[in-house]
Amino acid sequence: MKKLIITLILSIAILTGCSKDGLIDRYKNISEKIGDVILTNDCKLKGIRTFGLDHYVGIYEVEYKDYTGKEVVFGGTTIKKDNDDNIHVKIMIKDSKGSVQVIQKLKEEDRILASKDGIYGYDFNINDGSNYLIINLKDYSGKIKIDVDYIEIVKNF
């Protein structure tokens, strides 16, 4: 798939006389659009999602009733992120029955952030590649609120 996309972009660049920087920008834009396709569509979500500055951050609130499925609520794919793209994820789960997992996918690594009632907080650096926040549920009833926002890390001089 990557080879096909790269070949397509190179063909477009050659035909349009695109510069190297223009080529990289086009590839980045295509990569980001493909990454957005992985997010669960708003009309298919069980709750209400409000994006922040981009699709990596925002608020998601939901109340499930005996639901089994997966929702990809935040994230994306990019070839170039700033080194300062740090996010804070706050998760609140309550009134749980059934199985729930809130998972942070950073490139190829999946990390379970929450799987039972409680309030959780995590800080992550979003790197190049695919990065998503996913909710996996099996026969689950309960309330979940997820709040993701960019944070500024103060660096020592």
Structure, explained:
With 157 residues, the chain is an alpha+beta fold. The protein has 2 helices and 6 strands, in the order H-H-E-E-E-E-E-E. The N and C termini lie far apart (43 Å). The model has no long low-confidence stretch (mean pLDDT 82).
Please sum up the structure shown.
Helices cover 22% and strands 53% of the residues. It is built from 2 helices and 6 strands, in the order ααββββββ.
- H/E element order: HHEEEEEE
The number of domains: 2
CATH topology of the largest domain: Jelly Rolls
Distance between the termini: 43 Å
Low-confidence stretches: none
Query: Overall mean pLDDT score?
Result: 82
Pick out its properties.
single chain; 157 residues; alpha+beta; Jelly Rolls; 2 domains; six-stranded antiparallel sheet; 22% helix; globular
How are the SSEs placed, and which strands pair?
Blueprint lengths: L1 H15 L3 H19 L9 E4 L6 E21 L7 E21 L2 E6 L3 E8 L3 E23 L6
Antiparallel strand pairs: 1-2, 2-6, 3-4, 3-5, 3-6
Helix pairs in contact: 1-2
